[in-house]
Amino acid sequence: MTAPVFLVDEVSAGTVVLDGPEGRHAVSVRRLNPGEPVVLTDGAGRGAFGTVVSVEGKSTLHVAVDEVREEPAPRPRITVVQALPKGDRGELAVETMTETGVDAIVPWAASRCITQWKGERGLKSLGKWRATAREAGKQSRRLRFPEVAELHSTRQVAALLGGADFAAVLHEEGSAPLARASLPEDGSIVLVVGPEGGVSPEELGAFGEAGAGAFRLGPSVLRTSTAGTAGAALLLGRTGRWG
């Protein structure tokens, strides 16, 4: 079993103190003891691999760091633009995409989204997505957690697609399968996942003008909360990142 991962502000060598919420989780929930391995990461690709040397109270432990590693950013970079799903299915989408290996997640206020992020509710929802990405990043033993961007409009998404080396919109009526698309070996890939009601013709047209083609995954229609994970898994395999 791999060592548990905890998030820290800064990764350093020597003997490190883990306290606060992460220390409390390590001591009171995970019940770590001296001699057990742990990994401390800043979530930006840097990780300290070490061993617990002592536990203090209910929320503090001391870690002797044996090695500090710098994980390079994987290439090509994969971003999923996720239309806002209903209820808590947005957090489910973020969780599974993080576990799969997506590099960035962009919330999108599509015209057919039932859920809307406005005011305090929007800030709270974005905070939940970001917290979910952090927790899923730790759970999946990642050193580099995905970035969760601010809520994007259709115009902002189109601009993002225009700057990608490969851009695609998942659409059940897409003329070509994503499994056969020509993908770059480097650079950036941006994949758009529409809402439950689908991508509108106007949005599809705007994205097409930005250089994004419409692709299908397979014969079945996936829910918006699972399509991004399935599409990302396909891209990770085809680009060799899962090789």
From TrEMBL:
It catalyses: uridine(1498) in 16S rRNA + S-adenosyl-L-methionine = N(3)-methyluridine(1498) in 16S rRNA + S-adenosyl-L-homocysteine + H(+). Its EC number is 2.1.1.193. One of its GO terms (cellular component) is cytoplasm. InterPro entries: Alpha/beta_knot_MTases, PUA-like_sf, RsmE, RsmE_MTase_dom, RsmE_PUA-like, tRNA_m1G_MTases_N. CDD domains: RsmE-like. It is found in: Cytoplasm. GO terms for biological process: rRNA base methylation. Residues 18-63 form the Ribosomal RNA small subunit methyltransferase E PUA-like domain. Its main location: cytoplasm. It holds the Pfam family PUA_4. GO terms for molecular function: rRNA (uridine-N3-)-methyltransferase activity. Residues 75-234 form the Ribosomal RNA small subunit methyltransferase E methyltransferase domain. Keywords: Cytoplasm, Methyltransferase, rRNA processing, S-adenosyl-L-methionine, Transferase. Specifically methylates the N3 position of the uracil ring of uridine 1498 (m3U1498) in 16S rRNA. Acts on the fully assembled 30S ribosomal subunit. PANTHER family: 16S RRNA (URACIL(1498)-N(3))-METHYLTRANSFERASE (PTHR30027:SF3), RIBOSOMAL RNA SMALL SUBUNIT METHYLTRANSFERASE E (PTHR30027). Belongs to the RNA methyltransferase RsmE family. This is Ribosomal RNA small subunit methyltransferase E. It comes from Streptomyces odorifer.
